[in-house]
Amino acid sequence: MAAQFVDADPFISAMGPAVRQAIGLGRNGHGPLTAWCAAWTVREQVRACNALVAVRAGEATGWVVGITMFNEARGPRRTLVDLAPEMRAALAPTIAEAFAAGIATGLHAPVAFWKALVELVDADSPALRVLAPAVAVGVGSDVFAIRGAARELSRRIARAYPAVVPALVAQLQLAQAGAEPGRRRWLDEVARSLGTPIERAVARAVPDDGEVALLDQLLVAWHASGDPAVEPLIVALGLAVSGARGPVDCREWDRVARLADPGDVARLLEDPVPPTKRVQALARFPPDPRIVARLAQAARELSPTRAAHAEIAAIFARAPAPSTLAHLDAIERRWPEIGAYLAARDAIEEALAQRVATAADPALLAEAMSRTGAGQDVEALWVTHHANPSDLDHRAVLGDALQRIHDPRGELIALQLANRDEPAAHARVESLIAAHGERWIPVRANVSEVRFANGFLVAMRVGRPSEALVESFDRPEWVTVEELVVDTACDLAPLVTRLPLLRRIAVRDEDMLAGLAAATPALRAVACCAAWDLDALEIARYAVIGGQWAGATWSPNAFLNRQHLAATRGLAAIVHLQFPVRMLGPAALVATESGPPETRFVLGRYRGWRGDGWVARVSRGVRVADLAWAGGVTSAFNLATAHVGSLVTAGFRRIRLHAPHRPAAQLASMTTSIRARFPELELELAGGPIDLGAPA
Fold first, then answer.
1. DSSP symbol at 410
2. Where is average pLDDT lowest: 93-102, 152-161, 589-598?
3. Can you tell me whether residue 545 is helix, strand or coil?
4. DSSP 97-155
5. What is the structure's pLDDT at 198?
6. What strands lie across the sheet with 622-629, from one edge to the other?
7. How many other C-beta atoms are found inside a 10 Å radius of the C-beta of residue 535?
8. What is the pLDDT of residue 380?
9. Lowest mean pLDDT among 96-110, 178-192, 349-363, 528-542
10. What is the value of pTM for the model shown?
11. What is the pLDDT of residue 3?
12. What is the SS3 assignment for 527?
């Protein structure tokens, strides 16, 4: 037992804001720590501590367990041994933080506490990194059992965190200076024993030339100052380290995450599994702006009842920085009723008010900038790209710069600009988009039909809810979008003004069409999933328009008037969405005599500009029809014969069939059947699909 009763006071400065807040509430008689804070004897403290372990009362539990074990380690140690392994692993990092903080202040830890750490801290636990300075003290202890436990922990540190070992060895060598000869030999033996695991670990790893240590320093500087200038350097250096290590296999994710190595953060966050399912694993890492940003994005997409919100808020509270408050602003606009984020905001604002340093060391920033390949140059390249996104030559320069800092976007840019028609290149592009695509799009909630070209997003369909879409309007990823389908009701004019390359848009209702043409003169094709009034808009601005004018009842006169209006306004094509199949033949015949140069019919479901099922196309003045397969279920594909029959009955004698991606045997069987049924028909097999939004 310790010589004097130890409470939380010596540890306050080392605690995070959330733990300090919990201790303060407990001392005022509120919250789960009330009994522990009110304890006057070691026995009362141990009893309250064990009760907290049983209910796992938040992040503070590990701290109070660690503090208690400076007084009496045997009782809590027995309680911890009885816990499930995953619960012990969750408590280990914060117990280790309390242990290291106590040793740093000069407190003496009993032998049972050292033995408990050997049992509690696994060989790959993130707690090992925190324990390194305390272990150096323990190796030099006068107590044989403490020296043995410290030596075992030092071996585990060497295996799991080779980057930490040089500092540990330096501390051991420093301790040798004032030690007696026998103790000096012991310390020298321990220091030399760390060489074997270190050499073995370095032989397996990719050399990082000090980048991991520099990344650790940047994270410490960010946590201490909240300086926003540090954040892009953390991102760039993290990408360089993760790029050198390679992607994490999904089966290895949990093992790698348990190490809590900041050098792994970028590649761990690439995993397609939503980060909200792995919040507890991410909570083991030191405060990191990359984790905060990723979880902030995920939190806005969670339902408000999910328990993960409380865990995310706890991570935020441990990362007091202006950028964290900005992320909280976005979350609170989405979920204003979740109290956990309000509590996190209070903790962050309190920590910021008490902070002395608000800027990182300029020498550290300069070193990081030089190590990341002139990160400011990359930032300038991004600014130029956002100002002129159509410049493909500049994209190539940006891609080269990104590859130098191991940003996977650079590889995607290079591959897609090269446009190599090779299976390996296509497979690599698909792999990159699958791993990183969610980070390269402006909104992730309910999106589909995402397409990248030349390294950037060019097409996407967005569904409900509209809040996530509106919140994303300011994101720079929108600037390269050329085709957009929006299935939720909102005012798109503020977004469209930011899309200089937008050529096509399809929206839910007529009200959303207003103001789109004035917002971007590049827009050439608009469509609406409704029977919108062509007279209500200046359709002459566009080349192609689309709408769902024909429903269960179809009026030939209305169809003829609409065709005539499209022709007189100078349109290149009109697209009839979800057109009634039974009326295809008569409508196609009218379209060859009246209308714009081309008329297109989508015979399946509405999917914006992509079409569904079969798509028909006819040209004015030519009695030839094109019938193209746009994808969908097999039952819809088998309707081709019926569509051909409708066209033949209307008087078409030549039809071009487009179905390049269907199996050859299926296509051959279908064409044989059509020719047998309509011997007078001239049937041709043509090329690719019909582009609904292209000018004629």
1. H
2. 152-161
3. strand
4. HHHHHHHHTTPPPPHHHHHHHHHHS-TT-THHHHHHHHHHHHHT-SSHHHHHHHHHHHH
5. 35
6. 447-453, 456-462, 483-486, 504-507, 525-528, 544-547, 573-576, 598-602, 614-619, 622-629, 654-658, 682-685
7. 9
8. 84
9. 178-192
10. 0.57
11. 44
12. strand
